[in-house]
Design goal:
12 strands, 55% helix
């Protein structure tokens, strides 16, 4: 008797229903592996949407320059650790020589690491902030919109005026009532007047942008005269990004005394290069997670093979009857492979559903992380679950097909 694929799948479902507990335990490894892959894939997608949206918010014609390579860093070389900070003189020289640039924003901030910054108004205060001093061009060069008020002027910067512009989150923490402009805040023991509030970032994330506390450059220098860490951004003319990078590089190498046979003592990046770097990192993480999830599926595959071997033993007489009335070896192999694939495929589908529920839970509990199940995770998860059934079901299927019909009919 020759069974079609549809009939074999129907028989496989009957077996699953007749042995619910055994089938559920068999699917467990595949379910966990697939659900893990879905959940991690959704988190990576959320992070990708978050980071890419935030970086693109700076503009596609913006160049970022720092003493290290801007972007995601895991470690620094000894040469990088010994680098001197960019100076205001370095940046001013770039402004004079970069003809392909249209604007510059200089930012000064404290060294990376823990700090004691605190901003308060009345009984409300915040320690979590992106605190720095900037030049008036900051919101223009870095495409930062203001929800209300204004940014400080060049005159306020040159006269070290005690004015501050707050991020959206900081403003809500300090002023729950909503009235912010021209109110006074105490920043590290100094009184400042709030003249503006940044708009909420357009990207789903932007937590750091929401926690900005920006004061004029020279006001910051007056408050913290020993601080020397500078970062600057430059906007470029359309189509002249490469020219601007060359001009900035040439100017900085000259002013910082970099010799011809030495690498740059600074880093230059663009929004596209930072996004590419992030994609490279997430691709590596996705590969590692896929391997880890695959290990869980392989363990599930061993369970499938054991259960299928038990099933072959239990159904020895049935196999003998089928072969006695004309079933070929290929028909027996197809029947047992279909059963194994149905088991692991069902586990994979349930894992996809479980991963989707986890992704939904993340979106509800962490709105700033727009998680979503990526197509690659669905295809890999389901494809691998089916492949597990095919691979680990082959040995039991071949064992069943090799049974002698006479011996199988006499089996008790």
């Amino acid at each position: 008797m020759r069974s079609s694929i549809g009939e074999n799948i129907s028989l496989a479902w009957d077996t699953v229903r007749n042995h619910r507990m055994r089938s559920a335990l068999t699917m467990l490894g595949v379910f966990v592996g697939t659900a893990t892959l879905m959940a991690i894939g959704s988190i990576l997608t959320g992070l990708n949407n978050n980071i890419v949206g935030s970086i693109k918010g700076f503009g596609t014609n913006t160049i970022f320059v720092y003493k290290f390579q801007p972007g995601i860093r895991t470690h620094l070389t000894r040469e990088e650790r010994m680098r001197k900070p960019l100076s205001l003189h370095d940046i001013e020289e770039v402004e004079h020589t970069c003809t392909a640039c249209t604007g510059f924003s200089v930012e000064i901030f404290q060294n990376w690491g823990p700090n004691n910054n605190i901003i308060r108004h009345g009984k409300h205060e915040s320690h979590q902030m992106d605190f720095s001093g900037t030049t008036p061009a900051y919101p223009v060069v870095l495409s930062r919109d203001l929800a209300e008020g204004r940014y400080f002027t060049e005159a306020e910067n040159l006269h070290s005026a005690p004015v501050v512009v707050l991020g959206n989150n900081i403003a809500k923490v300090l002023f729950p009532s909503g009235r912010v402009l021209n109110r006074s805040v105490i920043l590290n023991g100094n009184i400042f007047r709030v003249i503006g509030v940044f708009a909420k970032p357009k990207s789903a994330g932007g937590g750091q942008a929401d926690n900005q506390v920006k004061i004029p450059y020279y006001t910051f220098r007056k408050m913290l005269p020993t601080t020397r860490e500078h970062f600057f951004a430059a906007s470029t003319k359309p189509g002249q990004m490469a020219t601007a990078i060359d001009q900035i590089t040439e100017s900085l190498r000259r002013t910082r005394g970099d010799k011809w046979n030495q690498p740059n003592s600074f880093g230059i990046a663009t929004a596209d290069s930072i996004i590419k770097q992030f994609h490279d990192i997430t691709a590596q993480v996705a590969m590692v997670i896929t391997v880890v999830a695959s290990i869980g599926m392989l363990i599930g595959g061993v369970g499938v093979m054991n259960i299928m071997l038990v099933s072959v033993t239990e159904r020895t007489r049935e196999i003998g009857v089928r072969k006695a009335i004309g079933a070929r070896r290929a028909d027996i192999v197809q029947q047992f492979l279909s059963e194994a694939i149905v088991l692991t495929g069902a586990g994979g589908l349930l894992g996809i559903l479980g991963g989707w529920l986890i992704s939904l839970l993340i979106r509800v509990t962490i709105p700033s992380l727009p998680s979503a199940i990526p197509l690659w995770a669905v295809l890999i998860g389901f494809g691998f679950s089916v492949a597990i059934g095919l691979f680990f079901g082959m040995a039991p299927a071949l064992k069943a097909a090799a049974l002698d019909p006479i011996d199988a009919l006499r089996y008790e």
